[in-house]
Amino acid sequence: MAIVKSYNILPQLIKDISEIISLYPDKKIIWFGYAYSHLVDVLQFALREHGQQFDYVVDNDKKKWGRVSSHGIIVSPPEHVLMTYAKNSILLVMSNYSEAIVDGVKKYGYPENQIIVMKNPFEYSDEAERVFKEEITGLKRMSLRELQLCELEILKRFRDFCNDNGLRYYLSGGTCYGAAHYKGFIPWDDDIDVQMPHEDFMKFVKNYPKGGRYEIIFWTENDDFFFPFAQLVDNNTTMIYGSVPISMLQGVFIDIFPTTGSPKSIEEINYRKELYCYLDAKWKWFYNSRNVLSLESDDCRQDIWNKKFDLPFDTSEMITAPYEFSGGYETWTLPRDVFQYGETLEFEGEQFSVMKGWQEFLNIRYPNWRPLTKAEQKINAHPIKAFWK
Questions:
Q1: Class of residue 374 by CB neighbours under 10 A (exposed 0-12, middle 13-18, buried 19+)
Q2: Distance from first CA to last CA of the chain, Å, rounded?
């Protein structure tokens, strides 16, 4: 059976933040950044168990201002909060962009000696490498190109199974973009994304063979697997996926996303986007808080799944991806005609299925796409360390 093990950084992060706050009993505590919304929610709850809290959470992203999480965090514009409490507060920054954040904060007149820059998120997740050391000791690490070619072999297995069993799939995300513009991987990309109609997705998860070199990992079968979609993994490989706050040990994978029907009216589409934000927050809360907080989290996963996929793919006029991975970036809604089946594009010398309206999909998915700089490529790369067994 495919191996999935997880490691949660939150206990260590909670300890570090609590120790910092205890040094400033008379100061308001401001947390900068809501990129990891699920992380901030659990931190706040854990701190309150210690008689501490964040007094404010601020973020530069205007789309997040006023957002209220499933557990009560309200996101504020930074300028007013920082200027109002400049003399009586401590600002905590934990980000891959800490230097730019600090520069921006100082422009508001916020005192530099009241800014505490913590380790960036993936420095915390690097701890997983120590935890999983025995599983990777002596293994040969893959180069980026070796990782890409390993993922390509998984994709070919996936394609062949879908073709043999009459299941629909489409290259998605950066993989579709790579096929359209590079006839292969975006040069610095390190993963493969595909999507399937929900009905086909569930057949795939149920019927893909168990016990072979390639296996499905999915939350119903692998309790440590925390994503609300599936992956097809290569059991002849091992990798550490240094996600925040939970890292995983597993095989090299491709991501498989189920898509679903959507209402047609703008009002209902906007409602659904907010609903998906809320449901994803609940999903992440379940995984991030268990074995971390004193309260027991209700297992709400099946209820969340049912709410997301309550409209059938084939009879809905609109189609959507019911996720919010980073500020709504993954949330899109398109007419079902875009998803007519039968079109292919070349990807690394092979033909793979794409939706008939793949250009329309890419226009809405990547409206302002541009090549990343070398520094951006490093920051935006997935935190993957992959090895041959």
A1: exposed
A2: 15
Sign of the CA dihedral running 178, 181, 182, 188: negative
Residue 188 phi, psi dihedral angles, 5° rounding: -100, 5
pLDDT in tens, the chain (389 residues): 799 999 999 999 999 999 999 999 999 999 998 877 678 889 999 999 889 999 999 999 888 898 776 567 789 999 999 999 999 999 999 988 899 999 999 999 999 999 999 998 878 888 898 999 999 999 999 999 999 999 999 999 999 999 999 999 999 999 999 999 999 999 999 999 999 999 999 999 999 999 999 999 999 999 999 999 999 999 999 999 988 899 999 999 999 999 999 999 999 999 998 899 889 888 988 999 998 998 877 899 999 999 999 999 999 999 999 986 544 445 789 999 999 999 999 999 999 999 999 999 999 888 888 877 877 776 666 778 999 99
Axis-axis angle for helices 266-289, 37-49 (nearest 10): 50
The pTM of this model reads 0.90
Rounded CA-CA distance 75/56 in Å is 7
The fold of the 8-125 domain, in CATH, is Rossmann fold (3.40.50)
d(CA 182, CA 207): 33
d(CA 141, CA 245): 23
Q: Are 171 and 194 in contact (CB under 8 A)?
A: yes
| Euclidean distance between CA atoms 182 and 178, whole angstroms | 5
Of how many residues is the chain composed? 389
Helix (H, G, I), strand (E, B) or coil at 118: coil
Q: How far is CA 100 from CA 58, 90, 93, 97, 257, in A?
A: 15, 18, 11, 6, 33
User: Three-state SS for 182?
Assistant: helix
Residue spans per domain, the chain: 8-125, 131-388
- 203, 165 Cβ separation under 8 angstroms: yes
What are the structure tokens assigned to 166, written together? Answer: 């009459």
